[in-house]
């Protein structure tokens, strides 16, 4: 019989899962020593994004794969019962249950331990990347992982195309600031100082974004300045400094229409991230290029991506080698556990 304390041990590790804007929306309610319900906290979501609901479910898939990795390292297998109901950010019930997970005994393998080590060390790197090109062999490994889940991974090391897409990513940030709802959402999650990041232990810190906190605060509070030639050019310069050495971009395309698609996309993406981490390769997702309709259209046209009904390019990221980036904060394990009764 699994002691209920194992859930606390698992949560203490799985809380390191990545989430959009580092909002950490997943909550867990322990039912008994082997069972827990998994919820998405709607108050920690990103409803202003055009794909806010879709990527909430992608985040759920990322979490479930993270939970599987952590459980396996602890000699357990997570058996899921999924609830693929539509997510509604306007719901009065702010905790959206998407899974019930049971833990059953599992024999730990070397692969389980390797995946866990990669999960614990995984980071987003916004640092400049060096000039090394990721080998074709590793890229083929990513393609196999994606294909096993019904997705197609493509990449480019064509420097002109890489530079063009980086410029689209940069322009997206400027464009998103003109959308009042998206701007308010970004401001809610920005942490302008190390002290603020340490206190809240979530969100996008200036330190991890490699931006001077005071400059970021000044310019974000005065978004109209971004359109001025002087300050706008300065912000572009600071931003593009972090993009030095980017020689490869990758994207995932496939089914992206149903809740099941979104969850599976999250699982697949997390598997790929773990695989790349095992090879000492960092990534940095360009999520806003996907969620900004204008930028998405420019990206797929520039990369010559064919999107059919029910399928889309749903993930874009740079990947390569860099120095270890600053660590993003995570809330304590207790903040992830729901106390008291939950909906059955």
List its salient traits.
344 residues; alpha+beta; NADH Oxidase; four-stranded antiparallel sheet; 12 helices; 18% strand; globular
Describe this structure in words.
This protein is α+β, with helices and mostly antiparallel strands and 344 residues long. The protein has two domains: 5-122 and 330-336, NADH Oxidase (3-Layer(aba) Sandwich), CATH 3.40.109.10; 136-320, NADH Oxidase (3-Layer(aba) Sandwich). The chain has twelve helices and ten strands. The chain has a four-stranded antiparallel beta sheet with strand order 1-2-4-3, with helices on one face. Strands 5-8-10-9 form a four-stranded antiparallel beta sheet. Helix 2 (52-73) crosses helix 3, helix 2 crosses helix 10 and helix 4 runs antiparallel to helix 10 (259-278).
Tell me the layout of helices and strands.
Layout: H1 5-14, E1 26-32, E2 35-41, H2 52-73, E3 76-82, E4 95-105, H3 110-121, H4 136-148, E5 152-156, H5 159-176, H6 180-189, E6 190-191, H7 194-200, E7 204-205, H8 213-221, H9 229-241, E8 249-255, H10 259-278, E9 282-285, H11 287-291, H12 293-302, E10 311-320
Parallel strand pairs: 6-7
Antiparallel strand pairs: 1-2, 2-4, 3-4, 5-8, 8-10, 9-10
Helix pairs in contact: 1-2, 2-3, 2-10, 3-10, 4-10, 5-12
Total number of strands: 10
Give the CA-based shape.
Answer: globular
Low-confidence stretches: none
Helicity, as a percent range: 40-55%
Distance N to C terminus: 23 Å
Residues in β-strands, percent? 15-25%
């Amino acid at each position: 019989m699994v002691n209920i304390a194992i859930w606390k041990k698992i949560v203490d590790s799985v809380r390191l899962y990545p989430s959009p804007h580092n909002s950490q929306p997943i909550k867990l309610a322990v039912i008994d020593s082997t069972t827990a319900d998994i919820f998405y906290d709607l108050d920690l979501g990103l409803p202003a994004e055009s794909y806010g609901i879709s990527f909430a479910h992608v985040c759920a898939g990322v979490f479930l794969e993270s939970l599987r990795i952590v459980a396996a390292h602890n000699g357990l297998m997570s058996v899921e019962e999924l609830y693929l109901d539509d997510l509604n950010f306007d719901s009065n019930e702010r905790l959206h249950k998407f899974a019930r997970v049971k833990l059953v005994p599992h024999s730990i393998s070397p692969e389980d331990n390797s995946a866990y080590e990669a999960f614990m060390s995984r980071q987003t790197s916004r640092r400049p990347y060096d000039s090394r090109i990721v080998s074709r062999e590793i890229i083929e490994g990513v393609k196999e992982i994606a294909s096993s889940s019904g997705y197609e991974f493509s990449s480019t090391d064509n420097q002109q195309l890489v530079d063009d897409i980086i410029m689209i990513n940069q322009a997206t940030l400027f464009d998103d600031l003109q959308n009042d709802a998206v701007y308010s959402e970004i401001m809610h999650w920005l942490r302008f100082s190390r002290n603020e990041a340490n206190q809240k232990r979530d969100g996008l810190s200036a330190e991890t974004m490699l931006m001077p906190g005071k400059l970021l605060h000044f310019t974000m509070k005065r978004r109209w300045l971004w359109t001025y030639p002087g300050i706008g050019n300065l912000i572009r310069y600071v931003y593009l400094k972090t993009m030095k050495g980017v020689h490869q971009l990758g994207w995932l395309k496939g089914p992206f229409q149903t809740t099941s698609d979104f969850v599976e996309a999250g699982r697949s993406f997390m598997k790929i991230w773990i695989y790349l981490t095992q090879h000492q390769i960092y990534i940095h997702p360009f999520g806003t290029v996907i969620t900004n309709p204008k930028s998405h259209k420019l990206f797929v046209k520039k990369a010559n991506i064919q999107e059919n009904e029910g399928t889309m390019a749903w993930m874009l990221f740079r990947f390569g080698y860099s120095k270890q980036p600053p660590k993003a904060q995570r809330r304590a394990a207790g903040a992830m556990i729901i106390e008291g009764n939950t909906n059955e």
